Amino acid sequence: MMRRLFSRKSPAGAAMLALFAGVLLVPLFPGVAHAYLDPGTGSMLLSALIGIAATVFFMVKTFYYKAAGIFYRLTGTAVPASGKNGIVFYSEGRQYWNTFRPVLEALDAKGESAAYLTSGEDDPGLSHPFTHVSARYIGSGNRAFAAMNMLEAGVCVMTTPGLDVLQIRRSPGVGHYAHLVHSPTDAALYKLYSFDWFDSVLCSGEHQIRSLRFLEQLRGTRAKELFRTGCPYMDVLADELAALPPSVTPSMEPGARLSAQGASAAPRVLLAPTWGRNGLLRRFGLDLLLPMADAGFSLTIRPHPQSRTAEPELLGDIALALAAYPNVAWDHGSSSLAAMVDSDVLVSDFSGIVFDYAFILERPVVTIAMDMDTRGMDAGDLAYPAWELDVLPELGASIAAENIRNLPETIRNLPPRAEFAARMRELRAKSLFNYRSSGAVAAEQILAVRQGLAGK
């Protein structure tokens, strides 16, 4: 242990050697010295101190995870071992349940055992009527990370990116890590190195495979097994939509909807942007919203769930400014389906909901043409634009940022519903693998991975 700690081959070891040498050399120098320290040397010393401090921090953090894992085992509260051939799913919470649910149900129907671990106390998976799948809440934050870092399983499947980059490290007891992509967007829109250290990725479309292969070749990382899987949560939404009575899902034209009295009614617009610096609310705010509100449109604003945490002041300011408009409402429901069904057109940006709306409801989407800020994303390393930038205009209409005051007119001039729906079915077939059957496909792919491990 000590030899590894002070090894010069690791950054931590080099930093510890430097720190140890400094402590030994201090007594050799006088207590008072009069000397000039040039700015360059000072900068080097400062950088060295910062590097040592960072190394010590991460060493302590790693030690904590290992110590916590050992403690959990000794006290009997660790995640139970599933054996070298076991399959374990990890979810960060209820927001990912519809991604895992079709896969788990397919495994359960085949009589295959699996464990579903979640960091959400209110995760619906904890009470789902499985026969062969066990579900368990393992806590959140450091408690969950410690448990995952000491996991024992043949295959671990998760939607959490950044394996061996962020808090979840590769456990020596896991044979294979698979990432189940939970969105049909370009894989490069994730943070840097989100997929680099997974053994496989279950992809939703060919565009994700293209980006992942490009990044592997660019960085010289080991080639992953990339599966043509699909988007399981879309299957759930499609089934829920099909189960609704016809009266709840009327076919209406955004530009000429009729009221119960037969008079022309205002279009029902759903605004559902992403959050942060690429989001419509942050970029345009009231300049985007007021034209639709003043035009009398029935406007429902559905902020991204992360917006309520990351930008509450922005949402509060907008809500206050629009409080006098009776035709403006806010939707914070856990499911987006009700808000989507109760609208004629979606206005959005780079949010994944645009594909839910266009591919599942087959209704038009209006996006604002703008540059994507790819700082800190894998997309910044691509030699071509992210897939969304080429596809978004095909989902309905796209207008330039300087023309957002013409948004009401753009909505009224959208193509007829039947024409648009046919285009969306064609685009969906090109963009998604195994639509409405991806859960069963993913289950078979995961079982094949487990079979491969058993043969080693």
TrEMBL record:
Residue ranges of the TM segments: 45-64
Protein name from the UniProt record: CDP-glycerol:poly(Glycerophosphate) glycerophosphotransferase
Keyword Transmembrane helix listed: yes
GO annotations of cellular component type: membrane
Keyword Cytoplasm: no
InterPro entries, per database record: Glycerophosphate_synth (IPR007554), TagF_C (IPR043148)
Keyword terms of this UniProt record: Membrane, Transmembrane, Transmembrane helix
Matches recorded under Pfam families: Glyphos_transf
GO molecular function, one term: CDP-glycerol glycerophosphotransferase activity
